[in-house]
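Chapter summary example.
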Amino acid sequence: MTVMPSPDVPFEEPLIELRQRLVELESFPEGTGRRKELEALRSQLAKKTKDVYSRLSRWEQTLVARHPDRPYTLDYVQALTEDWVEIHGDRAFADDPAIVAGLATFQGRAVAIIGHQKGRGPSDRIELNFGQPRPEGYRKALRVMHLAEKFDLPILTLVDTPGAYPGVGAEERGQAEAIARNLFEMAKLRVPVVVTITGEGGSGGALALGVGNRVYMLQYSTYSVISPEGCAAILWKDQEQRDVAAEAMRLTATDLLELGLVDDVIPEPLGGAHSDVPETCRRVGERLAEALEELDSLKPEQLVQQRYDRFRALGVFEER
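The structure predicted for these 320 residues follows.
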């Protein structure tokens, strides 16, 4: 097996040689000398990874959020749930694969799960439109939310999208209305809603699944009204200023926690979620279980009021 550098995360290049040596050494027969060398190499890799990831700029954290090997919604479904039944279509136009939605058993209780799916590899990503939903995707999501409310099931949403698809067809079929309708309807849901930003939280495409009683972010995820490239193109007519834009936008999990826009940050394994997908899924599952346990004590009207109060409080500042 050859460990290849990813063009998506150039700052990881110093780690590639160490990872390749580790893979090669692990393939050798067992032996005392091999064991000691493996321990030394793993220690060296961990130290180097910690050094690289402790100095990431906001733009570099954005690249981690976009890493093609990060877990997507179906990875979490497979790792954390049983009895998954996917629901397709919006009963109006079509099925949008950029959003997956369905029912499953999570730690012994029935839940509804809705999230973005970007796909693996070029053909898969093209088929899933790079995780950019069309209106029918949001209407499918809303259909499943109402189904969950009808049967008193908690709703878990997993957000990872660069944004809603801006194509002509999507606009013709009411993209803006579909997103606005989800915001309106999610605010009124009488069941617990827990939102987790797992990668990119891009603009209205993310917000349409983002109205929850709890909103969490993975450590290297991002959440913003526009991408750094888009911001740079508008302000400076130059997408190469994306790193400057990212610093000004304060779009990282740490930034948003400080601003009070999210409730907590879920730590990722050393080297990011893509470096240890099973452990990432375990940590997300642990936090989701805690949130549902906390929300179990609230009555339906209290859930609605808590969600309303939470979002009404966003963006309030005191002048000094």
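To summarize the output: The beta strands are 81-86, 99-106, 109-116, 155-161, 193-202, 214-218, 222-224, 264-266.
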